[in-house]
Amino acid sequence: MWLRPLLERSLGLGAALILVALIAITCVDVVGRYFLDAPLRGAFELTEILVAALVFSALPLTTERQEHVEVDLLQSLFTPAMNRWCQLFAGLFSAALLLTFAWRLLSQALKTLHDGAVTNALEIPLAPFGFLAAAACLISAVLAGLRGIYPAEIRAFPAPSDQKDS
User: Is the keyword Transmembrane in the record (predicted)?
Assistant: First the structure.
């Protein structure tokens, strides 16, 4: 899929840069707070915003890689055909849920943009982060739906039940 390298590069790099920024903010804040008696102004706000950006920038990548937490207690009891139907249902249900999230996040981001909402200390506009979250949910919804309809048949690492005894 041509989308995978693009997602991995852009979202992976974005997540890595956000993590570096979080580390830098935390270090500067701790050193300033405990050694210089001068904490970093707005560190808490920056941390909140960056953690949200990290979560939503990683969401499409996690969805595409199928690395979400799954409970498969009954999978071994089902036939392959039944497992395929379960996979289809899970993918389409996830897509519907993510589309709902995208819709609600978009409406909230538009409201935030209209109201001109900003953070308290640094007055950072909040709307762009709402749009980022909505876009991430929309991309993830498309990917989840595609994964439900066209599941990956090849595994990079076989499941323990697929390995033969040596």
Answer: yes
